Amino acid sequence: MKVQTGLAASRELRVTIELDETAVEAALRDAAAQAAQTIKIPGFRKAKVPYRVIERYVGRPALLAQVHERLAQETIQTYLRKNDVGNTENAAVESIQDDPVTYVFQLALEPYTSLGDCSALRVKPRALELTEEEREEEKIRLQGRFAVPQEVEEAADWQDEVTLNVKSVILDEEANVTDEVILEEEGWQVVLEKEEMLQPPGLEREIIGLTPGQAKTFDLAYPEDSASVYAGKHARFDLRVVTVKRHVNPEWDAKLLARALNDTGDEGAERPLAEYEEVFWNRLNHERARRIFQEELDEAFGALEEMSILEYSRFSVDAQVDFLVSQRRRELERMGLRNFETYLHYTQQTLADFRKSLEPEATTILKQNLLIWDFIERNKIEISADQQERLERQAAEQAAHMMNSDIGQREGVTLEGITASLLQHSMSETLGYLGRNALLEMCTEGVHSMVQYDEKLPVMELATRVSNEEEEESSDPSAPMAEFDIAQDAA
Questions:
Q1: Of 8, 12, 55, 372, whose CA is between 20 and 30 Å from 390?
Q2: Backbone phi and psi for residue 39, each to the nearest 5 degrees, phi listed first
Q3: Distance of CA 264 to CAs 140, 270, 272, 423, Å?
Q4: What is the pLDDT of residues 114-140, one digit of tens each?
């Protein structure tokens, strides 16, 4: 057996193995013996046909085609036993040659991580509380969200919705009115937007400043390079403003915040403004704290990556992309879209395009996972006995619930299998959270930058509770039960 080994890419080996003819001959004889059980050749009894007769009758390429898969697996396993190349994530056949029988394998090695000295790593903490200026911006944003259009008796301005009675006709070269009508309509509604200008250019500016009931006559020109059929021509407009509608922000009061917090019953706001404000601002501060936690963590990971050595194969990235694709499928299913191919069709992309778009995110997740698990191992971070007990209890409770669902009816699924899968998953997630918290605690100036995910939102008993998604996001990370494919692991 002749072996050639070379580095194909980062953490990837290309191994070319040429088999000895004796090994190939033995595999072909086994294949021929199996073929002899079913092939009827005149002059020979079944299972008594000599190998050379079978080879001539079937053909050596056909026999090789039957043994390549098994022979390739045996070959690479023998190579891995005899050569210390480290742990492999995947071994794939890249190419096959029949004469002489040669296999080219691509081996994806486990990622390699060498964590840098992060004792001197520092991340500047961000402020967790909203400033007064930011509070005012949030107030304006919320009021704008619930703004409603109302008729006003004021002059039209940008962003207003204006209803017009209008007639426009083309002018000849002497600026005389012709019979060619461009537009003649009563109740023509336009929104005066700077981003989407009306035609011809300047029409909005002629309308701005007019009040309801006011009329105006003016001429405008279509530019020579306009895409309009009237390019290069002049037109006369006779219009009258019927109504002007403007989005008016509601008052900052208990009724507004009750709507924003989904606590509006038949009677409207049921509590004083101060109580609603406490919930509203605490919720925004909580969301801000979560966002800042992730920003600081990303900064810490970026700095840690620069001082560390990270090596991984293309297979590692593809495996993370596979996970993200599966995750997106489940998200679309929760949104009611059962057919993933339909989503790809409407977004005008192929599966390959979709996978390609996920590669940057997959690579970031992969690198952060490599860094955090090396950090966890180096710092000997462990799950406490109390946390372990709680995770076991939650896994058992959720497994019992799942056994009463359609999952429990699947073949091979057992309560013990589901419990073990849930526990393994939640322990991995919990340890990851503990590692991230420990990393930030080490490199931030003071623990105030830490976000305690087990803190409950300072809420009162609202008529409509926060959504399930919000409740999950604000729960204790030491007991995460993220959704994953339980069926295969539990079976």
A1: 372
A2: -90, 135
A3: 20, 8, 13, 40
A4: 999 888 888 887 877 889 999 999 999
| Alpha-carbon distance values, 487 to 273, 334, 406 (Å) | 49, 18, 10
Contacts of 457 (CB under 8 A, 6+ apart): 279, 282, 283, 286, 466, 474
Length of the chain counted residue by residue: 491
Residues facing residue 165 across a β-bridge: 186, 240
DSSP state of 118: G
Strand order in the sheet with 12-18: 2-9, 12-18, 101-109, 88-98
Q: What is the pLDDT of residue 196?
A: 81
- Cis ω before 272 (30° cut-off from 0): no
Q: CA of 343: how far to CAs of 207, 328, 348, in Å?
A: 43, 11, 8
Mean pLDDT value across residues 198-211 = 94
* Class of residue 445 by CB neighbours under 10 A (exposed 0-12, middle 13-18, buried 19+): exposed
Q: Among positive and negative, which fits the CA dihedral 427, 431, 437, 438?
A: positive
N-term to C-term CA, the chain: 40
Q: Which amino acid is at 444?
A: T
- Under a CB-based contact definition with an 8 Å cutoff, are residues 324 and 481 in contact? no
Task: Note the pLDDT tens digit of each residue in 216-262.
Answer: 999 999 999 988 899 999 999 999 999 999 998 999 999 999 888 88
Give the Cα separation of 220 and 205 in Å (integer).
11
Which amino acid is residue 332, in one-letter code? L
Burial of 246 per CB tally in 10 Å (0-12, 13-18, 19+) = middle
Tell me the DSSP string of 120-181: G--BPPPP-SPPHHHHHHHHHHHHHHT-EEEEESSPP-TT-EEEEEEEEEEE-TTS-EEEEE
Q: How far is CA 420 from the centre of its chain?
A: 27
Backbone angles phi, psi at 467, to 5 degrees: -65, 160
For 28-82, write each residue's pLDDT tens digit: 888 888 877 777 777 777 667 788 888 888 888 988 999 999 999 999 999 999 9
Nearest residue to 261 (alpha-carbon basis) of 94, 142, 414: 142
DSSP for 388-454, please give it. Answer: HHHHHHHHHHHHHHHHTSGGGGSTT--HHHHHHHHHHHHHHHHHHHHHHHHHHHHHBSSGGG---TT
Region of 47 (left: φ > 0; alpha: ψ -120 to 50; beta: rest) is left
**In the block, residue with structure tokens 């526990």:** 423
CA angle 65, 66, 67 (to 5 degrees): 95
